[in-house]
Structure formats: structure tokens, C-alpha cells
Design brief:
Elements (H helix, E strand, L loop, with lengths): L1 H18 L17 H11 L4 E10 L3 E7 L13 E3 L6 H9 L7 E5 L8 E6 L13 E6 L13 E7 L2 E16 L2 E13 L5 E11 L19
Length: 235
Amino acid sequence: MIRIEHIAVLLAAAAALVACKPKTEAPGDASVDEAPPAEAAAAENTSLTGLIEACHVKMTAPDQREWTTYWDPAHTRTASQNPSGVRSVHWANETEQKIARDSNTAIPLDLGCGNDQNAEPAIMFTITAFDSSISDVPLAPGTYPIARKASPAKNKPGEFIVGALLYDKAMFQATSGTLTIDRFDMQGIKGSFTIDGNEILMGSRPVHLEGTFDMPCRNGQLQGGCQSNKAEQPN
């Protein structure tokens, strides 16, 4: 259930980006409705009210870009507005764990980093261990390989994949990388990652990402057992 919904949201976001790309205007032909820089900055700050930093992402291929992504600890924004977040069956209470096991969605770690689907350019990806158990990815620090998605076979226990990687209306697949978890406990998670891969469907460009993440566990989906009820800013 988590995998299908998460990937479906990202694919829908990619389609929305293509349909909603703003019209390019000639220099000097700015719209009279365009907000002055100061007003635009104020609107942006307002849109981030109540959000906390989730991921810092640096891209060196196919372009050189950097992003800071945010997530909504109050869970008031839609998934397309707020694609950053983290889930773990380790954080679930007994009832949630039973539901997850019965529905085959007891994933030990599912981490998403992304900005709003209307951003230019948009970046969205998930790092997840679909084919691992909670003993393969325990509630503790550790370093794990990121591998290509094995299909139809399963990936190795303790091996992570990138479920979907969208950048500026293009889709990429991860072929290698590393997920390093510095802290993983009942209050949250903190760590870093590297991802290498290539474009699929419409091209063959390479992609390289590296970054960090730091998110508290805040009573969201599969988080009934969390011990942290306060939004914490990343260090």
C-alpha cells in the first residue's frame, strides 16, 4: 500500500508538472499581475509557515543544483505539496504493526525527499527497503547499499532501492549508492545518502545526487509509537 501510493503520487506529480509549466515571456514583457520581488518573497515565506527542513540535496549530474526540502509535521498539506517525509514500521504501535503485517506493508524504512510539485525545477525521490524486514534494517545506526530495483525478483535483505526519481519532468532509475543512518530511534532519523543512476523512457543522461536528511518522528502514518511530539530543527 505504501509503495503503490507513494510511487503513484510521484508519477502524478510528474504529469502535473508537464501540464502546468508556465508560459515563457519575452524580456521586458512582464505581466502587470506579477508580484514585486519583496511581495513574492513574503508569499514564499508564508507558504513555508509551520514546515521544518527535511532534506538537503545536491545534484552534480545531469545539472548542478541544490535544494532544501521541507515537510509538514502537522500533516495538513497534500502529498503533492509535501513529498518529503519518512515512515517506519519500527515507529508503529501494536495495532498499526498488525495492520501493516496483514497488508504486507511492514516496511522498516521509507524515506522521501522532494519539493512542491509546482517548483521549477522539481526534485522528488524515495529511498526504501521494500524487500527487507525490521531485523534487516533495525532501529539503529548503519550503512546500507542502494541498488537497482530487482524485478521480478526481490532485492537482497538490507538492500535499499530508489522507488522513483523525478527531476524537471524527467524520470531516472538508481543503479547504485549508499544510505548512511547516523541516528535512528523512537524520536526520529538522521543521516546521508548518495545516489547514482541514469535517465529512463525519454533519454540516457546520468544522475548523481548526494545529501542529508534529519526528521523527527511526529505521529504520522505508522508513527503511533513515537516518543517525540515536538518539531525539531535539523542541527
